[in-house]
Amino acid sequence: WDAVYERELHTFQEYGDTGEIWFGEESVNRLLRWMQKHKISLDAAVLDIGTGNGVLLVELAKLGFSNITGIDYSPSAIQLSGSIIEKEGLSNVTLKVEDFLNLPTELSGFHVCIDKGTFDAISLNPDNAVEKRKQYVNSLSRVLKANGFFLITSCNWTKEELLNEFCEGFELFEVLPTPKFSFGGRSGNSVAALVFQKTH
């Protein structure tokens, strides 16, 4: 991932291109609409897990959210998102190089945690993916306040599989609509987008 973000950083510095928006612009808009619909307070603590180029943070800040943090384990991703946020003239965004599976204890107390593809990437880790997924759920439990919301967008997991992965300490709050496709007489979604609520 460092190599990917180093390339994107170079492209941003040279051409001003912010890079790829994971799952497309509609995925960002879907999350923003949900937060507005549910009247999430503009001073709610929001964590973007695996922020990448920080596009979601930029959009949250433009909507007026004032307590937003983006983390990524890739220093190049944080450098890229920092450059984009600076270019946009935004100052109410905190960026940190952090591995979500091994977080410092002071990173906690978030009302909303958002994941667009980070759980997918962790799940594909060839080195003990099952244990890494458990670590992810444990980290999420630690950083999210009781009754806080977790918004996840995934292209690797179905709704049912995500319900199983996040069954301990979380309950399904809402399924967000995503584009459908049909093939061979069957229809489905290429992306799952769910909102969980921490139960304790």
TrEMBL record:
Pfam families linked to this entry: Methyltransf_31
Residue ranges that the Swiss-Prot or TrEMBL entry lists as coiled coil: none
Highest taxon in the source lineage: Eukaryota
GO cellular component: cytoplasm; nucleus
Domain Methyltransferase: 44-172
EC numbers for this chain: 2.1.1.-
UniProt KW Transferase keyword: yes
First-level EC class: transferase
Catalytic reaction list: L-lysyl-[protein] + 3 S-adenosyl-L-methionine = N(6),N(6),N(6)-trimethyl-L-lysyl-[protein] + 3 S-adenosyl-L-homocysteine + 3 H(+)
SUPFAM superfamilies found in the cross-reference section: S-adenosyl-L-methionine-dependent methyltransferases
Localization in the cell: Cytoplasm; Nucleus
Gene Ontology terms describing biological process: methylation
GO MF annotation terms: protein-lysine N-methyltransferase activity
Keywords for the protein's UniProt record, in alphabetical order: Cytoplasm, Methyltransferase, Nucleus, S-adenosyl-L-methionine, Transferase
HAMAP family: Methyltr_EFM4
Family membership: Belongs to the class I-like SAM-binding methyltransferase superfamily. EFM4 family.
Function field: Protein-lysine methyltransferase that selectively catalyzes the trimethylation of EEF1A at 'Lys-318'.
PANTHER family: EEF1A LYSINE METHYLTRANSFERASE 2 (PTHR12843:SF5), PROTEIN-LYSINE N-METHYLTRANSFERASE METTL10 (PTHR12843)
Protein name from the UniProt record: EEF1A lysine methyltransferase 2
Organism: Myotis lucifugus
Gene name, Swiss-Prot/TrEMBL: EEF1AKMT2
